[in-house]
Sequence to fold (176 residues):
Amino acid sequence: GWQSFDACCRSDTEAFELRERLELDAEQVHRIDAFVYASLMKRFWNDVALQGATVLCIGARLGGEVREFTRLGALAIGVDFNPGSRNMYVVYGDAHNLQFGDGLFRYVFTNILDHIAHPTQFFNEVCRVLSGGGVFYLDISVTDGGYYEAHGNLLDDVPAIKAALERLKFTSVAEE
Fold:
């Protein structure tokens, strides 16, 4: 089943303590950014539509995706339950209830579907904040769950995810 980060914790104190333990040092952030940069460059390096486009990264953690979309010319911001202290790229936010206006973003990017407690509510929020003709990049890992995965491999859930997105009138443009 689907559970949010906070639902996995028994108390607000436990959630706070776990978030504090997940804080990364600068070297770890640099390594993660290098990986994210390589991944995004492979997909988007020649996408001239990113120049000046608005991008929302949901579940952006410490901002690796946001920084890389910015390097590619976008005006990007991230939201996360735990943006870390003094993070100028990511603000606190709930993926199920985004604080942004309707139709504000040309692109929405996420790779945290395994952390989403209510996928339909989440997809509705993505629809709401996307501008007309906007693009939703949903990155789903089909490998075995790793350290950060909340509920492991989403491969078995892909048909249900596709069905939910089709009901909301999303069109699949690429699968890798």
Q: What stands out?
A: The radius of gyration is 16 Å.
